[in-house]
């Protein structure tokens, strides 16, 4: 199948061609026709499968078939995302695919001044990509209305629930028109997620292009056992020894992300950190420098596990395992995207063995345990419980 077979208009086909795409991904192949038929969607797909185009293209197609009345545009499309980075990238996708169409879109999220957002909304928009908190700020100030929404998209819905946005989401849903098309995309499914789906989706088309809660087959996953106090030193050794050039490193806390970045810079490996305490400007610059190859390592908390779209990222390293097994799937989903191979390496110490077992149970895969000479752990040492329990989330 090609994009021509999906019955998109010439303006969209031209924009897709400009990006070098000729064949839709499996999730696009299944989602686009269903959305064009007016169906609600429940899509379960691994990250990196092209799901953003899977909803952006058919939404733009339907908007083209139902052009707005003359005058100021009415907000007809609302996309909710869990993080600023993902909001920015979804917004960029709408602008990329809709560049030959007359529709206006904007992005709103916290961490930046609200005034430019208010000015953009005053002129009218067709498409809004937002994070829940800042959207509620605008709604409380009366700077926008949701009464004309035709399309409501929840992107990375499971991540929004993980981050505690369920009450905000329900408040927002209560302000939407009853008659609308709902599109929900999620990589993993919990009981709470199933309840949310049941409350907002009407006879949805179920789209699943990979077994739920699985990691990509294109990602070579490795586990290296290491002494708890020598993880960062081993990280530096691996990067230097293998001459790796672009590595996304995950830590459990903001403080550790900063410490890792500082250590790597000290030993001559260019690095930066990205997490919730960084200003939006600093986060944007760090990500841009990383994508451009100006820094070799980006040390991140799980705020970056979703929403970082980096072309052909070769390698992800878990310096610390996440305390929620599903987050492992999201982390390593930053590599092995769009048909490219990738590698995910987890540096695991004895304190994290329970987390490792949880991950193996979730993805139904047993990892071989490797070690590096000089960095081996003492397996006779009794594990020290990590402060955050498996059912608790670390504030990021």
Walk me through the structure.
The chain is an alpha/beta fold. It has 2 domains: 3-208, Rossmann fold; 219-371, Rossmann fold (3-Layer(aba) Sandwich), CATH 3.40.50.300. It contains 14 helices and 14 strands. The chain has helices spanning 10-18, 26-36, 51-65, 84-97, 115-122, 132-141, 157-162, 166-174, 191-200, 231-242, 254-266, 280-291, 325-332, 353-363, and strands spanning 41-44, 77-80, 105-108, 127-130, 151-154, 181-186, 205-208, 219-225, 247-250, 271-274, 297-300, 315-318, 342-348, 369-371. The chain has a 7-stranded parallel sheet with strand order 3-4-2-5-6-1-7, with helices on both faces. Strands 10-11-9-12-13-8-14 form a 7-stranded parallel sheet, with helices on both faces. The longest helix has 15 residues, at 51-65. It starts with 9 loop residues before the first helix and ends in a 25-residue tail after the last strand.
Count, helices: 14
Query: Any idea how many domains?
Result: 2
Give the termini separation: 42 Å
What structural class do you assign from the helix and strand content?
A: alpha/beta
Spatial order of the strands forming the largest sheet = 3-4-2-5-6-1-7
CATH architecture tag of the largest domain = 3-Layer(aba) Sandwich
Q: Note the overall shape.
A: globular
CATH class of the largest domain: Alpha Beta
């Amino acid at each position: 199948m090609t994009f021509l077979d999906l019955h998109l208009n010439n303006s969209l086909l031209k924009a897709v061609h400009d990006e070098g795409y000729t064949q839709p991904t499996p999730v696009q192949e299944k989602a686009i026709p269903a959305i064009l038929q007016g169906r609600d969607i429940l899509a379960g797909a691994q990250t990196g499968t092209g799901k953003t185009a899977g909803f952006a293209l058919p939404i733009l197609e339907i908007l083209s078939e139902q052009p707005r009345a003359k005058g100021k545009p009415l907000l007809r499309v609302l996309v909710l995302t869990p993080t600023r980075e993902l909001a920015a990238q979804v917004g960029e996708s709408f602008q990329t695919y809709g560049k030959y169409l007359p529709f206006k879109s904007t992005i709103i999220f916290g961490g930046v001044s609200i005034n430019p957002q208010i000015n953009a909304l005053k002129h009218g928009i067709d498409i809004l990509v937002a994070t829940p908190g800042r959207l509620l700020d605008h709604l409380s100030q009366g700077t926008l209305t949701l009464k004309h929404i035709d399309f409501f998209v929840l992107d990375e819905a499971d991540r929004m629930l993980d981050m505690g946005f369920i009450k905000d989401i329900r408040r927002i849903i209560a302000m939407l028109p009853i008659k609308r098309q709902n599109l929900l995309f999620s990589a993993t499914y919990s009981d709470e997620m199933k309840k949310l789906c049941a409350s907002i989706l009407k006879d949805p088309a179920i789209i699943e292009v990979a077994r739920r809660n699985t990691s990509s087959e294109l990602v070579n996953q490795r586990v290296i056992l290491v002494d708890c106090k020598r993880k960062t030193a081993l990280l530096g050794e691996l990067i230097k020894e293998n001459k790796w050039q672009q590595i996304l490193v995950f830590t459990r806390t903001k403080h550790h992300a900063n410490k890792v970045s500082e250590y790597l810079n000290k030993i001559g490996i260019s690095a930066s950190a990205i997490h919730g305490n960084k200003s939006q400007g600093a986060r944007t610059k760090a990500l841009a420098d990383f994508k451009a190859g100006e820094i070799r390592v980006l040390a991140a908390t799980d705020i970056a596990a979703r929403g970082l779209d980096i072309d052909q990222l070769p390698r992800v390293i878990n310096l610390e395992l996440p305390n929620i097994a599903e987050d492992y799937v999201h982390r390593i989903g930053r590599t092995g995207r769009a048909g490219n191979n990738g590698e995910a390496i987890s540096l695991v110490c004895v304190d994290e063995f329970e987390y490792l077992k949880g991950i193996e149970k979730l993805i139904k895969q047993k990892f071989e345990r490797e070690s590096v000479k000089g960095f081996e752990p003492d397996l006779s040492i009794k594990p020290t419980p990590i402060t955050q329990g498996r059912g608790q989330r670390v504030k990021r």
